[in-house]
Amino acid sequence: MEDKFKLTPEENVFLAKKNLVSNIYTEAKIEDLNITFPQTEAILNGGNVPSLPLDTINTILNLRDAWHYVFDHLNDSVTLDYIKQINFWVSRNQSLKWGELRNGKVGIAGTDHQPLVPDPETTEQQITTITGQELSATELALNLDLYLCYNQLFWDGNKRTAHIAANAWLIQNGCGVLAVPENQIAQYHALLRYFYQTGDGEMFKKFLYQKCLFGLE
User: Fold this and answer.
1) I need a surface site. Which of 7, 22, 111, 165 has the fewest CB within 10 A?
2) Cβ distance 63 to 22 under 8 Å?
3) DSSP string spanning 2-61?
4) How far apart are CA 126 and CA 122, in angstroms?
5) At residue 217, does pLDDT exceed 80?
6) Which domains, and CATH codes, for the chain?
7) Mean pLDDT value across residues 201-217
8) Which pLDDT score, from 0 to 100, does residue 216 have?
9) pLDDT at position 146
């Protein structure tokens, strides 16, 4: 997979910030949260939306803070510790433990997939191997996304953590932004479920590449 976009880091940060509300909104919809775009925008602008559950509001604010972590650490390598920090912000006050690898078993609703309990040393080595491959920066970002989604390293917020970590890699390398369009969420879920069931992520990866990568026109 070739890089679809070749931006400067400054251009890529501009793109990510310009589409931040939209990206956070679709991440919330992927989690099946009952929220509208105007409500998401209001929360991110510091407004009060009393009709929404507190947990939903916290999810939006946590996504905001995870993105701010990426913007504040653009020169940091995307390592396991970096990804744990993203999960810390994504899952803060909403998980059994946040920013730490899970130490127990989890299942994924609607599938038979039961990822192994992650071993810290093995996990760190696997992430280093993924990001060190001689592939385009875009493909490395997508491989990282698939790895994090499939292995469910954390108690909660794994897809959100995966997408933001992949975006950190894309931004640092000027390769655009990864975001699932709202009209593609059903297809996203179907292909992700197939990936969980079979372990074959090629269709899911191709979908992300073709439908979910965006740059500056």
Assistant:
1) 111
2) no
3) --S----HHHHHHHHHHTHHHHHHHHHHHTT----HHHHHHHHTT---TTS-HHHHHHHH
4) 6
5) no
6) 9-214 (1.10.3290.10)
7) 95
8) 87
9) 98
The whole-chain average pLDDT of the chain stands at: 95
**Structure tokens that stand for 215 in this block:** 């740059």
Q: For residue 115, what is the DSSP state?
A: P
**Where would I find the H helices in 92-156?**
120-131, 137-151
Q: Are 149 and 96 in contact (CB under 8 A)?
A: no
| Paired tokens of 55 | 């947990």
Q: How confident is the model at residue 90 (pLDDT cuts 50, 70, 90)?
A: very high
Q: What is the pTM of this model?
A: 0.95
For residue 64 the two structure tokens come to: 């905001």
Assign 112 a pLDDT band (cuts: 50, 70, 90): confident
Q: What is d(CA 88, CA 8) in angstroms, rounded to the nearest whole number?
A: 28
The DSSP call for residue 97 is S
Burial of 107 from C-beta contacts in 10 A (0-12 / 13-18 / 19+): exposed
| Three-point CA angle 79, 84, 85, nearest 5° | 100
C-alpha R_g of the chain: 16
Cα 155 from chain centroid (whole Å)? 15
Environment class of residue 37 by beta-carbon count within 10 Å: exposed (0-12), middle (13-18) or buried (19+)? middle
What backbone phi and psi angles, to 5 degrees, belong to 134?
A: -85, 70
Structure tokens at 44: 């991110």
